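Propose amino acids for all 338 sites.
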């Protein structure tokens, strides 16, 4: 499969995250990228498509913040990575804040997503990988393409970061696909964690269908999004389809949920599919609690391929670094059977 990845995606290397009451080594490391690259064979560097497609998803204030945040952190006399500590849980609104601490809380929603020295460059490179994969599909060079994105993106909203995510690569690609006349577009999120940012971006947009299979948010991050009753609003009513599953879910249950998602995408009449693929559904993932095997990853890809749609896969999570490349390769091999 034609694969895109930017060298700049290794530049993001946060040291710590504040989770479960303590500082821990950050789980989203450059080693993830190295392991996946080792399993993917030939990988193409993306072209630079500029900011336009990113600006079609993310607010100008948020983009400017991401570009400047770490520099402002250093200018304030700090060292290391920028981590928010104060959040507006009520009445979140645009404010002209001057101190970086306030800006971090205004645009971020957790303490596990630091902004490091190379964060903007890496996130920008990941978005360009997604856009270049889409361009290869739009030109007819490839029917399926893989954007090996890192950092991931599906937790990032139009104007917020969190869940290790800064720019929403799947949403950027989906909106660009729709703008290029490749719609209707569907996004299928099969990461362990709900893609709250993608849902938020398209919740009232009936032109993009969003289906997600994920851990029940009553017990797992991101908690506040991804419940079954969330189905869209306004023009987007009925175009969000959430299937939360309990911890310990294996392929027997997951396969049924995936079949329902595939049927819903087909009923929507999608012409282009964006897959947010997370390998953190793997049974041995250190921060997730499903029970899928590497063989199940292959079966997942095969099931998605049954739609027969041009498919852009965008990499999201997966934190068992040693097995990550093998699981990604199995999923891609399943997709390529179509």
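Proposal:
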């Amino acid at each position: 499969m034609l694969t895109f990845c930017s060298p700049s995606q290794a530049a993001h290397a946060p040291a710590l995250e504040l989770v479960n009451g303590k500082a821990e080594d950050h789980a989203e490391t450059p080693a993830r990228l190295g392991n996946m690259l080792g399993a993917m064979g030939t990988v193409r560097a993306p072209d630079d498509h500029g900011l336009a497609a990113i600006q079609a998803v993310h607010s100008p204030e948020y983009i400017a913040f991401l570009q400047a945040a770490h520099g402002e952190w250093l200018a304030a006399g700090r060292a290391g990575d920028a981590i928010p500590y104060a959040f507006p849980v009520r009445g979140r609104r645009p404010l002209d804040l001057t101190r970086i601490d306030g800006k971090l809380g205004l645009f971020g929603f957790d303490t596990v997503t630091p902004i490091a020295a190379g964060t903007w460059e890496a996130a920008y490179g990941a978005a360009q990988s997604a856009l270049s994969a889409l361009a290869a599909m739009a030109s007819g060079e490839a029917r399926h393409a893989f954007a090996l994105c890192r950092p991931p993106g599906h937790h990032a909203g139009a104007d917020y970061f969190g869940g290790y995510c800064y720019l929403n690569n799947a949403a950027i690609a989906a909106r660009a696909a729709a703008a290029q006349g490749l719609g209707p577009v569907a996004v299928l999120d099969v990461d362990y964690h709900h893609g709250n940012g993608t849902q938020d971006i398209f919740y009232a947009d009936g032109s993009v269908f969003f289906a997600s299979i994920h851990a029940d948010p009553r017990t797992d991050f991101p908690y506040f999004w991804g419940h079954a009753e969330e189905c869209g609003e306004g023009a987007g009513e009925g175009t969000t389809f959430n299937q939360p599953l309990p911890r310990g879910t294996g392929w027997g249950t997951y396969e049924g949920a995936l079949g329902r998602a595939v049927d819903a995408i087909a009923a929507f009449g999608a012409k282009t599919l964006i897959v947010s693929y997370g390998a953190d559904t793997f049974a041995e993932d250190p921060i997730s609690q499903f029970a899928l095997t590497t063989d199940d990853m292959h079966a997942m890809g095969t099931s998605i391929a049954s739609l027969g749609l041009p498919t852009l896969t965008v990499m999201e999570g997966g934190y068992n670094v040693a097995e990550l490349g093998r699981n990604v390769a199995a999923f891609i091999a399943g997709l390529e059977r179509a």
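Residues 26 and 79 are 17 Å apart (CA to CA). The mean pLDDT is 97.
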